[in-house]
Amino acid sequence: MDIVFTRNQIVPEESKLRGIKDIREYFSVLQNKTDYVLVLSGSDECSGQWKRFLEVSGLPLRADIGWRESYAAVVDGGAMKVDEKSKEEININYEFLAGHPKYIVEYVDGELKVGCRPLRYCKIKIKSKGFTGAMGACKSEIMVDNIDYSMNRTGINIVVIDKETGNVLDSIHVNTYSDPNLKINRA
Fold it and tell me: DSSP 3-state assignment of 51?
């Protein structure tokens, strides 16, 4: 993730998530929180350790991911918004309002005017492509405001976004294909 920040000249926001290496601890911090958006995208093969991942993460994701299927999900404020699998490539656009509306009260021409402007919309594009036989065809993209934060590695790629600011707090990869320990990877 540091490479993404450097390449795009982004100053990373402080996040306690980046210091967590244990997957159970990681998801216990995220569990029952309404101030995060979690975006998941599978690449190549993510079903091998999927049931174990569901147990450890506690996320309300579908359990029926098949061998080398594409998979994408969005958990927004603790609520499941997208939970999709396919044998074909998945492309999803998702938006949420970051922060709270700003209310403006002002006098204009002797009259009191009240207005409301949202802070900003956070735009997310998710791409997932399972293994199709062609080398290099597997893909995971998680574009947040036109910057790809996905690790694009075999298994499940996860990006955590702060709902208040719309900033990316963490980007991890978990090899749900072949790692029974479900180690968190950031490089």
Answer: helix
Q: Distance (Å, rounded) from C-alpha 65 to C-alpha 155? A: 12
Helix (H, G, I), strand (E, B) or coil at 50: helix
| Parallel, antiparallel or unpaired: strands 147-148 and 168-174 | unpaired
Q: Comparing C-alpha atoms, which of 169, 59, 168 is closest to residue 124?
A: 168
**9-42 confidence digits (pLDDT tens):** 665 667 889 889 999 999 999 987 789 999 999 9
* Helix, coil or strand: residue 92: strand
pTM value is 0.86
Question: What Å distances lie between residue 2 and 5, 27, 29, 151, CA to CA?
Answer: 5, 21, 22, 11
